[in-house]
Amino acid sequence: YFSLKAGVRWPLDVLAEEGFAYDSSILPIDRLPGLELVSPRSPYALRADLWEVPIAVSRFGFWHLPMLGGFALRALPEAFVRRRLEQFEAEIGPAVLHVHPWEIDPGAPEAESVPRAVRGLKRVGRKGLAGKLRRLLRAYSFGSIAEVFPESRGAGARPIAAKLAPSA
Q1: Distance between CA atoms of 55 and 43, rounded to whole angstroms?
Q2: CB 10 within 8 A of CB 37
Q3: How far apart are CA 70 and CA 67, in angstroms?
Q4: Which of 48, 59, 94, 158 is the most buried if burial means most Cβ atoms within 10 Å?
Q5: How would residue 88 be classed by pLDDT, with cut points 50, 70 and 90?
Q6: Contact 58, 129 (CB under 8 A)
Q7: In the predicted model, is pLDDT for residue 90 greater than 70?
Q8: Angstrom distance (rounded) from CA 128 to CA 150
Q9: For 12-40, what is each residue's pLDDT tens digit?
Q10: Element (H, E) at 51
């Protein structure tokens, strides 16, 4: 759930100590409605041996919103998602989309501990997501983080140009 905040560094030390080369836990917006970016929307070096490869946060008017994964990918019309994907690619470069396995399976069990309203939101768009993903996979080129962002694999690699400098 994008639990790492842009200014918090100790979890990054743990990730690097455990041998991770990249992370996607820092959401470029601090909270909705996404009026302000708190970190770059493109990959950047967090430290010499760890990169942040953020999920795509699309600019929509004066908002910055995660529209290419999770609830947005399930709920928004496919044509709208395609426009956001193409806009992101034109502005930033390759987009990182995210999907949880349960989002593809309409019959996946849900935790009883999750509030009923949240469970309802988690069901939105699940029946059509597999088909939407198949069509997106046919229409666009996709690859792993290591394939699309090879600089994120090695220590000392130079950062990709970013719109914002990482927050200290």
Answers
A1: 9
A2: no
A3: 8
A4: 94
A5: very high
A6: no
A7: yes
A8: 32
A9: 889 999 999 999 888 888 776 778 888 89
A10: strand 50-52
